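Journal club side-thread
Mid-discussion, someone asked how the predicted structure for our own chain would compare to the paper's figures. Pasting it here so we can look after the session.
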Amino acid sequence: MTLDANVDVDVDVDAARRARLRARLGLESDAPASDAGEGDAGVDALEAGEEEEDATTQRALVERRLRKMKELRKMYRDQYWRLLDALRTKHRRFEVRRGHAGSRDAEEKANARREAAGEAAACGDDGCDERPMACAKFCFRHILKDETQILYVAGSDGAPRMRES
């Protein structure tokens, strides 16, 4: 067999593969499958061997995809737990800053206790719902509006800063 004959057989095999694929997918082929010509008997013999190779290749492909899907599922599961842990940490920080540290009724109890002691349950600034600082009428953002406090001064950006001794 010459090089040209090998090329013809390869082209015939490729054409047959494309025709089979089009038939499986229900697409119309550009040229009828019978245009393969003289190499049809050789193509049929090669197709029988190819189907066995395709089966093993298909099995290997399915196994590889299954393995990759399991790896991906494990990665997503790990990511989910990392994000959940980060959310719990941020939520805990939020609760501590708000002053109720995790208990659902703790904020309401703290507000009731402050009101019983004569302290404000919310910041004294209009429109601010933040919890006031201990022994003060204002939250940290508005503490400079409290004329009786002496611990904080305005920083260069206008935000409250601790007074230096």
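Post-session note: Residues 150 and 163 are 8 Å apart (CA to CA).
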